[in-house]
Amino acid sequence: MINELSEGEKLKSGNLADLEFHGPGQIPELLAPAGNWECAKAAVENGADAIYFGLDKFNARMRADNFTCSDLPELMEFLHYRGVRGYVTFNTLVFADELAEATRFLTHIIQSGVDAAIVQDIGICRIIRSLSPDFPIHTSTQMTITSPAGVRFAKRLGANLVVIARENSLQDIEKIQSGIQDSSPLPLETFVHGALCVAYSGQCLTSEALGGRSANRGECGSGLSHDLSAGGGWKAQGTRQPPVSPEPPGPGGLD
């Protein structure tokens, strides 16, 4: 249930993207994306309780600005000094031959004082739990959790919070929330601002099929931000609004 904030607690920036709900009557956590120092400082100055950001691998926005592993100690020191939490997005599918590297990344993330990892791959959840019994795991919207059963599955994986799929309506969220009250419920988080695609979070294969770039590997070519012509080919939209996505075509999309 979305709780209304008082006048003194209203959002100060239109770029704040996620809210975490801890229960009725509680003020939600305000979580903002930040891919570089400028964005991180802006989010902190505008009242974010936490920020989320990717590193130079294993995150779903590989074409955007990202921090590096070497940035983590200084970044987390800055955030914690200001009373802000920092979450790393580890939200792509990981191949078997990448598991050793992924484990090294996760070890560094945990040792750098990061407050949680946002995860898509269930195997990564298990690796985190093998490295640390209590490092917080937040399941990503890319895990496509749309039901109470999905939340319970995330809890069995060792998750501490569930970012439900962005496609859930307010009515869906209420049903999920009411459906998990029979046990110790996990906190739920939902997007309140940002791009929304016609495909379900974590389930789109369009970019990989048409352009060889997997959306589940952080390389989405924004194929659904283009128009499919009657002849079966793609044509550029220019400045027109795409028919199936509110996100305008970005640079380097499918040709």
List the helices and strands and how they pair.
Blueprint: E1 18-21, E2 29-33, H1 37-45, E3 50-54, H2 72-81, E4 85-90, H3 99-111, E5 116-119, H4 122-131, E6 137-139, H5 148-156, E7 161-163, H6 170-179, E8 188-191, H7 206-211, E9 227-228, E10 234-235
Parallel strand pairs: 2-3, 3-4, 4-5, 5-6, 6-7, 7-8
Antiparallel strand pairs: 1-2, 1-8, 9-10
Helix pairs in contact: 3-4
What does this structure look like?
The protein has 255 residues and is an alpha/beta fold. It has a domain at 15-191: TIM Barrel (Alpha-Beta Barrel). Helices cover 26% and strands 15% of the residues. It is built from seven helices and ten strands. The strands form two sheets. Strands 1-2-3-4-5-6-7-8 form an eight-stranded mixed barrel, surrounded by four helices. Helix 3 crosses helix 4 (122-131).
Spell out the key features of this protein.
255 residues, TIM Barrel, two-stranded antiparallel ribbon, 7 helices, 26% helix, 15% strand
Uncertain residue ranges? 1-17, 249-255
Overall outline: globular
Q: Helix and strand succession?
A: EEHEHEHEHEHEHEHEE
CATH architecture annotation of the domain at 15-191? Alpha-Beta Barrel
